Amino acid sequence: MKKKLFFFGIDSATWDLIVPWAKAGKLPGFWKLLKQGSTLDLRSTMPPITPVAWPTAMTGVSPAVHGFYDFYRLDASRQITVNLASELSHAFFWDILSRAGKKIAVCNLPITYPFKKVNGIMISGLMTPGIKADFIKPKSLKPEFLKRFPKFHFAPGTKVSKNDPKSYELRFKENLEDARETARVAKWLFAKDDWDLFAVNFMAVDHVQHFFWEFMDQPNSPYHDAILKVYQIVDQYLLEVLTKYSDQYQIMIFSDHGAGKLEKTVFLNHWLREKGYLYFKNTPLVLMKRLLTNLGFNPEKLIGLASKLGLVRKAGRIKMQTRNRFLNKLILSYADLDWHKTRAYSFGMYGGIFLTQKNKKLLTEILTALRQDFKKELTFVDSSENIYQTKVLPKTIPNIQFLLKEGAIVSTNIYAFSGNKLFTDPITNKSGEHRINGILGLYPKTDLKVTKPCLEDITPTILRFFNEPVPDYCLGQAIIDKAESLSIDEIEI
Ligand SMILES: [Zn+2]
């Protein structure tokens, strides 16, 4: 067992794509890992989404403890608020290792902004507001970083339009460039010191899978190999890391969840309204918004129309806040609900159902109704108390969660009420969505104590690797046993 650890993150990477491509000779790095390393499925969180999964992997606590259920949450005044890493109260594994004097480099891991100083260098990832923010520490490195990587983005863009072929071309180029740039930044950072822990994450695989999944079924599409091409860029760097660094480093290859096809969006708030659990305010403005929704106007159509009329700048270039301010005047939002009468509402990308009061009878009633009405579509439904095995849930976690066949999701925040039917085509033009199983690889091959690891096991595993005590609050277990693997010359006598 090595003394240093290289954490190689690939957000949303799935064996479902990697294994056949590696077998076909298209991914030599992954082939090396599959042939010579230890590889397993890694069970994600419920829901299997980046802002929930990464905090669990990075801290060792479940979503019922860290309280993140989505990129956003509803605050006390029912406004949509972004979840920030600084609100996570448990230490990241590198914070613990930093305190133990280990030299740390962390690069582009999602949901890490804003962050504390580490004993080394840290660059935050997805959900960093932009390069003007304090995304790199020590701060003194920022000028050098920006000089070397002036076009650095924390993730590729996420807007595509079926009516605008150029939007696909642009996103595809961005995904390729994002993967290349992440590898360039990682190489630059790696060379800066002799790191005990080096952690990097590629975001482009997740993004390209979301928007280009459908083209894998279309042999004549120019984007038929779009996802493969992004994997190949990551694979090239993986091969280099496995070949060059495995003498000194134990390499851990990780994804926070898997991926698969997305076929539809479900608007569960309409179902909750029909069932008499959710009520809108009875004002002329809300009635007008409901009429617009029934006529089929959703945020995408309204922004498209507004940009044609010159009311807002072209979609994709306007700021989220400007866009939301404009849309809030025209589309239904949480502010339009009658909160005195509403007993349940759906929120977040995975549409968990929140009860407005703790009520066991209501919980059972809604669970029963869901099982009955979505018999064909549901693959899983349960209370969060059962899912996380706890009686205590933070307010930010829904009371009921479910998964639907073919990865159907509920579109979050500005889209929460915008379907005029219960199920529609994916409204954001996504054709890929997450799956519960991510990937875990260890290279060189390692004896594993656990055959079905989950994200809660990552922090205990990394701390155990460095022979650091695992905090009592960590729910998972170390999947390797470093102590047993120590060679004679490593043991102090
Ligand atoms: Zn993710």
Lay out the secondary structure.
Layout (H helix, E strand, L loop, with lengths): L3 E7 L4 H9 L4 H9 L1 E6 L6 H10 L3 H4 L5 E3 L5 E3 L10 H7 L4 E6 L10 E5 L11 E2 L4 H7 L16 H26 L6 E6 L1 H9 L13 H20 L3 E6 L3 E4 L3 E2 L1 H7 L9 H11 L4 H10 L11 H9 L15 E4 L4 E4 L4 H14 L4 E6 H5 L11 E5 L18 E2 L7 E4 L1 E7 L14 H8 L16 H4 L8
Parallel strand pairs: 1-8, 1-9, 5-6, 5-8
Antiparallel strand pairs: 2-18, 3-4, 6-7, 9-18, 10-17, 11-16, 12-13, 14-15
Helix pairs in contact: 1-2, 2-9, 7-8, 7-9, 8-9
Bound molecules: zinc ion (ZN).
Zinc ion binds next to helix 3.
Describe the structure.
- There is one protein chain.
- Mean pLDDT is 90; it is low at 483-493.
- The protein contains 17 helices and 18 strands.
- The two termini are 19 Å apart.
- The chain is an alpha/beta fold and 493 residues long.
- The strands form six sheets. The chain has an eight-stranded mixed sheet with strand order 2-18-9-1-8-5-6-7, with helices on both faces. A two-stranded antiparallel ribbon has the order 3-4. Strands 10-17 form a two-stranded antiparallel sheet.
- α1 packs across α2.
- The chain has two domains: 4-259 and 435-490, Alkaline Phosphatase, subunit A, CATH 3.40.720.10; 265-429, no CATH class.
- The structure holds zinc ion.
